[in-house]
Amino acid sequence: MTQLTALGKSPAQPARRAPSRSRRAVALNLVAVVIGLVVWTALATVGVQGLPGPLEVAAKAGELIADGTLLTDALASLRRVLVGFLLGTLLAVPVGFLMGWYATARGLLEPYVQFFRTIPPLAIIPLAIVLMGIGEVPKVFVIFLAAFLSSVVSTFQGVVDVDRTLINAARVLGASDRTIFLKVVVPASTPFILVGMRVGLGSAWGTLVAAELIAAQEGLGFRMQQAQLYYDLSTIFVGLIAIGVLGLLMDRLLLLAERRLTNWQERR
Amino acid sequence: MNVKISFRDVVKTYPLKDDTFTALDHVSLDIADREFVTVVGPSGCGKSTLMSMAAGLVEPTSGEVLVDGSPVDGPGPDRGVIFQQYALFPWLTVRKNVEFGLKLMDLPAEERRRRAQRAIELVGLADFADALPKMLSGGMKQRCAIARAYAVDPQVLLMDEPFGALDALTRVQLQDQLLDTWSKDQRTVMFITHDVDEAVYLASRVIVMAARPGRLHKVVDVDLPYPRTEEMRLSPEFGRIRNEVWHAVYHQAPAVPAA
């Protein structure tokens, strides 16, 4: 969200920023990364107890990539997140539309949505284990719940916020309720849905590691927890960085889709 | 005269906490076929509500609104509406916006395309047919909205302060274009405005309304010939009518409070 506004509200021409500007921004980003690595190395050299330096972590990463562990773990984690996220969003969009469009549906569903939204999905884990065992189901379920609750609220909000004059404009041209829903409400709330999806993906990814603490056999969270037992900080760092990079990549992909699909919005 | 739109003893009230708010108090008004009527009045006089009833977007509490002799039952493409806020679909290009109503009429694609193109050319937006609304100025957006209304060829145009948000120059241009089009196809136009000059310049009859409760105050006939010209705006006759309307709008006796 913050990146979105920051990028969207660039003081330069909204359509295209000058290439020199963005090159400058990339250069600054790289400088920041280098400074970070230097500080990290310094901290490790000065001797913060057991802290591995970047090179050590890189070596460990190479090792984990070579023996295929990192790939297997990353794929296992991605699969859980994507399945949970997709199921959550697939359910959230129609439920959000129902709540926004029909007062009855809203009245019936809103107490549950608002109530479960206040419970961190992680707090559901003990219950999920008892009810669903220790297989994939409870992990995916918790991620699903996290994604669903974030998306449903913003979809619902998007439908409620659709400009009444747009609906009236369609009605006076002779549009039926069905047409208004499909041709006006759905496109008008797309920006909200996409923002909801990004937030949902964020919370899905954020729930992953904790979900993998439930007796997983593979996955980035599981690998880090194993490493903790053996005091293997390098592996923990590799896991953290992998989670960060993958999360960032997925967020950027969604941001790209969002830009594509909501290019029509007036950005001020 | 052939009556096109008829408001018969129309009342509109909204419930308040422990009272009712009367937006329109027993309004009766006939608008002739092919007439250009403007409705002017202070804010809160119910002029937009009156228009929305003809559009079928608002139902009267009592009384009835007839178009061509039959009661209005919801909106329909026979009555084109133009809103002050343009109300373009921002995700559709100018052409797609204009085609929106045509698609609902189940026309063959070619016919649809042709009519949209004609409407776009009529309002002078041909060069922007494939632009998104965000690329357009306020005046161009309103032209697009007008083209969208014209495209479905309604018999009645209902315009709710359509030029209210535009700068003075653009407003004059759009007024002249509107009159030009109207003199050719002679639709019935009900045009809401709070601008006295605009009301007099466009209409053959100005309806002045009063507020609290919203009601008809005065009807002023504009005996100026069409086409209206720039010189006419400066003529003594125009000035006289304008003053009459101005006086009716701004020096209204306060309403007698309902017992």
Automatic annotation (TrEMBL), chain A:
Q: Which PROSITE patterns match?
A: ABC_TM1
One Gene Ontology biological process = alkanesulfonate transmembrane transport
Gene3D superfamilies, alphabetically? MetI-like
**Which keywords does this chain's UniProt record carry?**
Cell membrane, Membrane, Transmembrane, Transmembrane helix, Transport
**Pfam families referenced in this protein's UniProt entry, alphabetically:** BPD_transp_1
Q: Where in the cell is it found?
A: Cell membrane
Instruction: Give membrane topology per the record.
Output: Multi-pass membrane protein
Domain ABC transmembrane type-1 per the UniProt entry, residue ranges:
74-254
Instruction: Provide GO CC annotations from the record.
Output: plasma membrane
Tell me where the transmembrane regions lie.
26-48, 81-103, 115-134, 140-160, 180-201, 229-250
Q: Tell me which InterPro entries the record gives.
A: MetI-like, MetI-like_sf
Q: What coarse category fits the chief subcellular location reported for this protein? A: membrane
What does the similarity note say?
Belongs to the binding-protein-dependent transport system permease family.
Specify the protein name: ABC transporter permease
UniProtKB/TrEMBL annotation, chain B:
Q: Name one GO molecular function term.
A: ATP hydrolysis activity
Is Signal among the key words of this record?
no
Residue spans crossing the bilayer: none
Q: Which UniProt keywords apply?
A: ATP-binding, Nucleotide-binding, Transport
> What InterPro entries would the database entry show?
AAA+_ATPase, ABC_transporter-like_ATP-bd, ABC_transporter_ATP-bind, P-loop_NTPase
In terms of PROSITE patterns, this protein maps to: ABC_TRANSPORTER_2
User: What Pfam families does this protein map onto?
Assistant: ABC_tran (PF00005)
The UniProt record lists the ABC transporter domain at 5-236
Tell me the PANTHER family matching this sequence.
ALIPHATIC SULFONATES IMPORT ATP-BINDING PROTEIN SSUB, TAURINE IMPORT ATP-BINDING PROTEIN-RELATED
Q: What is this protein called?
A: ATP-binding protein
Which lineage? Answer: Bacteria, Bacillati, Actinomycetota, Actinomycetes, Streptosporangiales
